[in-house]
């Protein structure tokens, strides 16, 4: 698939997935199970520094995980938008309205290279680790920089069960993830 046809396919799929999320009712029990999955991963792997995100409306809600991780003294690195890139801050529960008009973490500068795991949002993930984001490339650029630093951090996309798909269109700049997590399962990909 050429990058042009992949870009067109991704745009159509984004519209479909966003519509599905808009129609999806909030599910507190699923949010709790998802946060438990993330917490268990951190416990099993003795994670001290995790990168994550503040969930936007419609995204898988990991708020309980963020609270739990802070209670466990896990350093949380959360993104803020700075032009075309993400900058990372150590999250202490403070937020501010960012460049794109939504709540972002406030805190002192953090270095993503310190993260032992990166939990990142996605609209969908396929069974070989292709991740479909919202289309601005923020996370692709961040993950490319992380890979260039020789980081060994696992990159885990957080999605709803129905957003784990067989195949996604992909472009040359798209960064693959190591795994996907939903409220009901953890799926690892060969890379």
The H-and-E topology, N to C, reads as HHEHEEEEEEEEHEEEE
Q: How much helicity do the residues have? A: 25-40%
* Average residue pLDDT: 90
C-alpha-based Rg, rounded: 16 Å
| Total of domains | 1
Sum this structure up briefly.
It holds the Pfam family 5-FTHF_cyc-lig. This protein is α/β, with parallel strands linked by helices and 191 residues long.
Secondary structure blueprint with pairings:
Layout: H1 3-23, H2 28-44, E1 49-51, H3 63-71, E2 75-82, E3 85-90, E4 95-97, E5 103-105, E6 109-110, E7 117-121, E8 124-126, E9 131-132, H4 138-148, E10 154-158, E11 164-165, E12 179-181, E13 186-188
Overall description:
It is built from four helices and 13 strands. With 191 residues, it is α/β, with parallel strands linked by helices. The chain has one domain (3-188): 3-Layer(aba) Sandwich (Rossmann fold). The strands form three sheets. Strands 6-3-2-1-7-10-12-13 form an eight-stranded mixed sheet, sandwiched between helices. A three-stranded mixed sheet has the order 9-8-11. Helix 2 (28-44) packs parallel to helix 3 (63-71). The longest helix has 21 residues, at 3-23. The mean pLDDT is 90. Keywords: ATP-binding, Nucleotide-binding. GO terms for molecular function: 5-formyltetrahydrofolate cyclo-ligase activity; ATP binding. InterPro entries: FTHF_cligase (IPR002698), FTHF_cligase-like_sf (IPR024185), NagB/RpiA_transferase-like (IPR037171).
Question: Any descriptors?
Answer:
191 residues; alpha/beta; Rossmann fold; eight-stranded mixed sheet; three-stranded mixed sheet; 25% strand; nucleotide-binding; 5-formyltetrahydrofolate cyclo-ligase activity
């Amino acid at each position: 698939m050429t990058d042009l046809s992949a870009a067109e396919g991704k745009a159509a799929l984004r519209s479909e997935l966003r519509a599905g999320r808009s129609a999806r009712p909030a599910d507190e029990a699923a949010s709790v199970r998802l946060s438990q999955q993330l917490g268990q991963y951190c416990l099993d792997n003795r994670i001290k520094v995790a990168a994550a995100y503040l969930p936007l409306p419609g995204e898988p809600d990991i708020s309980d995980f963020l609270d739990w991780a802070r209670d466990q003294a896990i350093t949380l690195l959360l993104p803020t938008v700075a032009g075309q890139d993400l900058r990372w801050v150590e999250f202490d529960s403070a937020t501010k309205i960012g460049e794109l008009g939504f709540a972002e973490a406030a805190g002192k500068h953090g270095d993503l290279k310190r993260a032992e795991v990166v939990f990142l949002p996605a609209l969908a993930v396929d069974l070989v680790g292709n991740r479909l984001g919202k289309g601005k490339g923020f996370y692709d650029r961040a993950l490319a920089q992380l890979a260039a630093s020789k980081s060994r951090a696992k990159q885990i996309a957080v999605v709803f069960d129905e957003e784990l798909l067989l195949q996604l269109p992909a472009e040359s700049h798209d960064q693959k993830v190591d795994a996907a997590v939903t409220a009901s399962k953890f799926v690892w990909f060969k890379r």
